[in-house]
Structures are given as structure tokens and as C-alpha cells.
């Protein structure tokens, strides 16, 4: 255990640090940025939250004695009516979800093409660029469809991009320096999307409950048996959430001056 008292740690960076069970008393967290963090069972007592922004998977959040998760979910569904379709319960629901995602992504790509190509490599607020977002979705499909469901232990394409906090694994690409064009990434993405569509259209309500065989070898996900439904739900959720992030960042790029 390390104890800090009357210490000035402004500007400090913590990466891959385990702070489970840590205690913070009378601390100033103004302008702090937290990303890729697990905050299960966190308690904030007597705190002042002013202008705080939270994005992520929020489950069971209580503010001043009020569980607000249901309110947040209802408001998100109101703002994005298609969001309800991203929780499919049966094979037809997965087909509807995927067709909806295809339609929505068509609009997002049309919007992206109106920007100069170099802008699609720009980060907004330290997040992935538009191209990197598409590359991460290649990784998600390779991981959860080609590896977890179809059993390929090493399905990776050189443009695949895992999430930043994923530990390096032999054979899994993570090239943050490469700058492929939008068309280069989309060529791979069309191939992967066709495979997902084929898999979804082959499902029945019964086959969605089939458990996969654990895939041996380094990579993600780790060797476990999953229901096909779970794997497809991950892909659907990744596609939905990252399109929203992409739309948010495209809006910022449209209104910002070109970087020099």
C-alpha cells in the first residue's frame, strides 16, 4: 500500500494501475480524465459533481438515493428509437438489428466522405479517429465472429485495431501508425460485414443458444464457450455504440478548422 498525504499529484498519469479498494479523502479531481476504467462498487460520498460527463456502460447508478439507470436508458431509447432494436431476443430480431445498422452506417459513411480524407485520421478529444474506429470494428468482428463463433484461432487482418487497454497478444496486430485510406478499410469491412450477415441469416432461435467450442491460442476472446447469441450481441453493440461515437466526432470535425 502506498499512502499520499498533502501531496501535489496534478498532471500525474496512471496507466494499467490497480486501484481496487483505494481510498480518496479530501482530494481535488478537477479536470481529471478517466477512460477504460472499471468502477464496480465505487462509492462517492459528500462529493461535489459539477459539469461531470460520464460515457460508457452504466449499470446500477444511484445519485442521492435515486437509481438513475432506468431514466438514462429510457432517455437514450427516446433519442435513438432504433436503439431498442439493438437488444434482439430472437433470430429475426438479429436480422432486423443488422439491417438497421447497415442503413445507419451508410448515412455515416456518406457524411464522412464529405470531409477531406486527411481529416478522417484526426482524433477528437483524444479518441480514435474515424478510420481507427472502423479498424476497431474489424477487430471486433474478427474476435467475436471469426474466432469465437467460427473457430479461427488467428482471424486477424493487419488493419485490425484492439482496444487500447488490451494486453499485447502474439499475432494480434496493433499498428497505430499506419494510415490506410477510407476505401482500403472499407474493402476489408465489406468482407467482414458479409460474413456477419451470412452468419446471422443462418441462425434460428434454437441455434442462437448453441455454445461455441473454446478456441485455443493467444488472442481475444480468451478460450471460453459462449452462446452464439452472446457473440452476435457483442458485435451488434459495438457497431451501434461506435457509430454514435463516429457521428459525434464527425460533427466536431465538420465545425473545426483543419489542423496544421
TrEMBL record:
Superkingdom to which the source organism belongs:
Bacteria
Gene3D superfamilies attached to this UniProt entry: dinb family like domain (1.20.120.450), E3 ubiquitin-protein ligase SopA (2.160.20.80)
Location of the DinB-like domain: 101-245
What InterPro entries does the entry give? 5peptide_repeat (IPR001646), DinB-like (IPR024775), DinB/YfiT-like (IPR034660)
Which protein is depicted? DinB family protein
Taxonomic lineage = Bacteria, Bacillati, Actinomycetota, Actinomycetes, Micromonosporales
Amino acid at each position: 500500500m502506498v499512502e499520499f498525504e498533502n501531496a501535489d499529484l496534478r498532471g500525474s498519469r496512471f496507466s494499467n494501475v490497480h486501484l481496487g479498494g483505494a481510498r480518496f479523502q479530501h482530494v481535488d479531481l478537477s479536470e481529471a480524465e478517466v477512460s477504460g476504467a472499471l468502477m464496480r462498487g465505487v462509492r462517492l460520498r459528500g462529493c461535489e459533481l459539477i459539469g461531470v460527463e460520464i460515457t460508457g456502460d452504466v449499470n446500477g447508478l444511484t445519485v442521492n438515493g435515486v437509481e438513475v439507470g432506468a431514466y438514462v436508458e429510457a432517455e437514450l431509447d427516446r433519442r435513438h428509437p432504433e436503439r431498442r432494436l439493438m437488444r434482439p431476443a430472437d433470430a429475426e430480431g438479429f436480422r432486423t438489428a443488422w439491417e438497421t445498422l447497415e442503413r445507419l452506417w451508410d448515412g455515416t459513411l456518406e457524411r464522412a466522405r464529405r470531409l477531406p480524407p486527411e481529416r478522417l485520421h484526426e482524433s477528437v478529444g483524444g479518441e480514435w479517429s474515424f478510420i481507427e474506429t472502423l479498424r476497431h470494428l474489424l477487430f471486433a468482428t474478427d474476435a467475436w465472429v471469426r474466432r469465437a463463433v467460427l473457430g479461427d484461432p488467428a482471424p486477424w487482418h493487419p488493419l485490425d485495431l484492439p482496444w487500447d487497454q488490451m494486453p499485447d497478444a502474439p499475432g494480434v496486430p496493433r499498428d497505430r501508425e499506419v494510415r490506410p485510406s477510407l476505401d482500403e478499410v472499407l474493402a476489408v469491412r465489406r468482407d467482414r460485414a458479409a460474413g456477419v450477415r451470412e452468419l446471422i441469416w443462418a441462425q434460428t432461435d434454437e441455434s442462437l443458444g448453441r455454445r461455441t467450442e473454446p478456441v485455443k491460442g493467444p488472442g481475444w476472446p480468451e478460450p471460453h464457450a459462449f452462446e452464439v447469441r452472446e457473440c452476435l450481441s457483442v458485435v451488434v453493440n459495438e457497431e451501434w455504440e461506435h457509430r454514435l461515437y463516429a457521428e459525434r466526432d464527425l460533427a466536431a470535425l465538420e465545425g473545426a478548422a483543419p489542423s496544421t
